Amino acid sequence: MQLSKSEALFAEAQKYIPGGVNSPVRSFNAVGGTPPFIARGKGSRVWDVDGNEYIDYLGSWGPLVLGHSHPAVVEVLIKTAESGTSFGAPVEQEVELAKMICAALPSVDSVRLVSSGTEACMSAIRLARAFTGRDKIIKFAGCYHGHADGLLVKAGSGALTHGIPTSAGVPESYASETLVAEYNDIESVEKFFAANPSGIAAVITEPVAGNMGVVPPAPGFLEALRKVTQDNGALLIFDEVITGFRVGPNGAQGLFNITPDITTMGKIIGGGLPVGAYGGRKEIMEMVAPLGPMYQAGTLSGNPLAVSAGIATLTELSKPGVFERIDGLAQRLTQGVTAAFQKAEIPATINRVGSMFTGFLNPGPVAGLADAENSDTEMYGRYFHAMQEQGIYIAPSQFEAGFVSTAHTEADIDATIAKVTAALRSLS
Ligand code: KE4
Questions:
Q1: pTM of the model
Q2: Domains present along the chain, CATH in parentheses
């Protein structure tokens, strides 16, 4: 693997950009080495500035469910841009995308578009507080909902009463309103409600965890969350930034048949452009300005380019058999990779929901954060680089998700499985 241009660019980037990247996880700090600078992508492949080709399973961390530069997306972006990129005024496409989201998610009567998943989750928390008149929220350790202050929190010393910041710059006073529970452990949630009977505005969760690596909800966990929030007058927020239009046409809420009060979205609904969204039933969304007293705004919210790319993407996903196909390809991949690890006698566990998956360097099972954190992250780093050498681009962190797109083919999958075997051989 020759990375000289990427190395030069990375050195240059670090002079002007913190860590040389515009989002920390791209820095390869978790796996070491130099991040290849990507020159272009097409379908299931990306090429870096040194001409190395990769089969891509990162998919820009989830948005690229159609693969890179899908013709329908490129075409609509060109056409839209020729008529202007942003007006700071309503455009027709916003109505179309809102209608598509509301049609896909029965729990959403009304949706507000924003420009990132962080904005969506931050706004959803504010909305839950506005609607309930309560201040505290519950999140889960290992789940990530963007970088809003109140969400960069871990379990506090007074764990039952308040959280403490995980980031510099977050005041204790902000963090103290966030309680941190354990994913797939409903008792860890119930005890917070017992200790704060009428103080909790909402529970926010990834319905399928993607940010500790992929960890599915345990049987009954989401149902129990729905019940404990309902019983205590709190809202249930499903953060579907990853799972929305990823694990099925109706998101995780459709897959698991749970009705949340608020849903946040991002990634796929923007087709690779900056987007986020939050929505819910009318009585909740009527709190949102200009209708109600909860303020939220954004210069580029609902801009024609992101919305058009989102419409094109959701339109492609609405075609018959699309989800069955990407789920089937992901199953083929994870079965093949599991067999390759078994043959190499390297302990590994792959968790998969639909076309999102994580290979843990861990004998397994991985049913929560503690299990995930028991993974061999040093070995993962070596595996990552061995795969990179084989021309396979996976997530540069053990605690992230990989994705199959509609652009991947059976041949891609079979080639990948063969390359995993070669990569593992180089590790032994
Ligand atoms: P953004 O602000 O990055 O658009 O979305 C935040 C967010 C919210 N909710 C969930 C479930 C998410 O996964 C994310 C962002 N995901 C990360 C990777 N898992 C984005 C990659 C990055 O931070 O660069």
A1: 0.98
A2: 5-69+320-427 (3.90.1150.10), 71-317 (3.40.640.10)
